Automatic annotation (TrEMBL):
GO terms for cellular component: dendrite; endoplasmic reticulum membrane; postsynapse; presynapse. The keyword Nucleotide-binding does not apply. Its cofactor is heme. Its EC number is 1.14.14.25. P450 monooxygenase that plays a major role in cholesterol homeostasis in the brain. By promoting constant cholesterol elimination in neurons, may activate the mevalonate pathway and coordinate the synthesis of new cholesterol and nonsterol isoprenoids involved in synaptic activity and learning. Residues 162-189 form a coiled coil. Its main location: other. It comes from Maylandia zebra. This is Cholesterol 24-hydroxylase. Keywords: Cell projection, Cholesterol metabolism, Coiled coil, Endoplasmic reticulum, Heme, Iron, Lipid metabolism, Membrane, Metal-binding, Microsome, Monooxygenase, Oxidoreductase, Steroid metabolism, Sterol metabolism, Synapse, Transmembrane, Transmembrane helix. GO terms for molecular function: cholesterol 24-hydroxylase activity; heme binding; iron ion binding. Belongs to the cytochrome P450 family.
């Protein structure tokens, strides 16, 4: 009995001590949150939802209601060119100040912001973007990867991809012709997702998926990963809810599919090159050749190559398809702009099947249309950087040790930068129009700008030029023109169109 009483007494003391430690830890956390508030509360910002959670409840509510979280940042514009967002004990600043945008994004000394980009390393414990070009924070680590990748995206190499761009776009035209003949509605987002994934698979990895005819698990895997990414970054507690376990496992499985596929394709290509076999002159071959010339290639560098496979496979498909879909949507809503774009295509391309690299340079108005699309609908909405040292943004003192977010969606929709910002007007980007001053950056800016932006816009021009050359299209009545925030921004309706062959007899 004495021993039992002693054990019970020790257990009670241990439990009391443990509870005491929890109380101390909780009070310490409260004091730290208070310290953060005192440090940054001189910076304007919307009222916090609560002391502990900051603005998290507002963000989660918008996400759960299929809202555009970036509209919340747009609402905060009334607080000035730099404003504060609190998430638990973490503070992030948002700015649309052009001078700050220039200072921070154009300099390599400001590293990618640790909170968001570290969260993209994996999804629910499964490696996702890892330390690839998008997420690598260490400058030397990033620069080595960029050095390996750059030759595969040079203008000389991209010129050689025109054949593949034309060939894959022709497959889309055949599918659209079939839908036009059968008077069947076209879900443009779905079809454009197929063609852009076909392009990136072919020109980057030498693989013919032909998704307009064949089924594949990749489109669904990419969509699942992107949705999972949004949830993982914005809801810190999502994975710990037992009700979400099935969805979490689906996201992990989608990540594994993409990475195991990438590992297989890379391994097969390396083996073929070592055996002296004939291999495609695609981006993967170019990257492997350049990497072999690097000194001190490590096993970690090989893992980075796989990280970048996932990056290209997703970013090279998703963002371009969304941009093209928004472009079709806006042209369908603005017949006068559509006719002007068609006339330019007729003048430059005529009846040619193959569009040349030089032709793309003459499609000036189409370039304006695509740029204006990205102003209102930047498919990748922004980027963020760590500001380690104190600085001043628009007269506001910013203590060092904070992340700063640059939101192209917000800056592109502000009256101070673009008159009547929600009006679709490609003439904003006329060659003689004033250039936007550090308020338009759909591909980011500076040394960490998107490596594939020229690739993406070449592909977009080829697809749009062929579409305008061959077809008349109208938007199906009754559909919404809302935006779905799913990691990237995409048209919620899918952009449903009816198509007909153009009648050249009356031209």
């Amino acid at each position: 009995m004495a021993l039992s009483s002693l054990l019970l007494s020790l257990a009670a003391r241990a439990l009391t001590f443990f509870f005491f430690l929890l109380v101390i830890a909780f009070l310490g956390y409260c004091l730290y949150i208070k310290y953060i508030h005192m440090k940054y509360d001189h910076i304007p910002g919307p009222p916090r939802d609560s002391f502990f959670f900051g603005h998290s409840p507002t963000m989660l509510k918008a996400m759960k209601n299929d809202g555009i979280i970036h509209d919340k940042f747009l609402e905060a514009e009334k607080y000035g060119p730099v404003y504060r967002i609190n998430m638990f004990h973490y503070v992030s600043l948002c700015t649309y100040c052009p001078e700050a945008t220039k200072e921070i994004l154009m300099s390599p000394k400001y590293l990618k912001e640790k909170f968001a980009y570290k969260r993209l390393f994996n999804l629910f414990g499964q490696r996702f973007f890892g330390n690839g070009l998008i997420t690598a924070r260490d400058h030397e680590q990033w620069y080595k990867q960029r050095r390996i990748m750059d030759p595969a995206f040079s203008s000389l190499y991209l010129r050689g991809l025109m054949g593949t761009f034309n060939e894959t776009a022709e497959k889309l035209m055949d599918k659209l012709a079939e839908l036009a003949d059968n008077k069947t509605e076209a879900n443009m987002l779905h079809l454009l997702n197929c063609v852009t994934l076909d392009v990136i698979s072919k020109v980057a990895f030498g693989v013919d998926l032909d998704l307009l005819k064949n089924s594949s698990p990749f489109p669904k895997a990419i969509e699942t990963c992107l949705k999972g990414m949004v949830t993982y970054v914005r809801d810190a507690f999502f994975e710990y809810n037992p009700k979400n376990r099935r969805y979490v496992n689906e996201v992990r499985e989608a990540c594994r599919l993409l990475r195991t596929t990438g590992a297989k394709w890379i391994s097969e290509r390396k083996a073929a090159m070592q055996n002296g076999d004939e291999v495609p002159k695609d981006i993967l071959t170019q990257i492997i050749k350049t990497a072999s010339q690097e000194e001190n290639m490590t096993e970690e560098d090989e893992e980075f190559m796989l990280d970048n496979f996932v990056t290209f496979f997703i970013a090279g498909q998703e963002t371009t398809a969304n941009q093209l879909s928004f472009c079709v949507m806006e042209l369908g809503r603005h017949p006068e702009i559509l006719e002007k774009a068609k006339k330019e295509v007729d003048d430059v391309i005529g009846m040619k099947c193959d569009i040349s690299y030089d032709d793309l340079g003459e499609l000036v108005y189409l370039s304006q249309v695509l740029k204006e699309t990205l102003r209102i609908y930047p498919t990748a909405v922004g980027t963020s950087r760590d500001v380690a040292e104190d600085m001043v943004i628009d007269g506001v003192h910013i203590p060092g040790g904070v992340g700063v977010f640059f939101n192209s969606y917000v800056s592109g929709r502000l009256e101070r930068f673009f008159k009547d910002p929600l009006r679709f007007d490609p003439d904003r980007f006329h060659p003689d129009a004033p250039k936007p001053y550090y308020c338009y950056y759909p591909f980011a800016l500076g040394p960490r700008s998107c490596l594939g932006q020229n690739f993406a816009q070449m592909e977009a021009k080829v697809v749009m030029a062929k579409l305008l050359q061959r077809f008349d299209f109208t938007l199906v009545p009754g559909q919404t023109f809302d935006i779905l925030d799913a990691g990237t921004l995409r048209p919620k309706s899918g952009v449903l169109c009816t198509l007909s062959h153009r009648d050249y007899k009356n031209k």
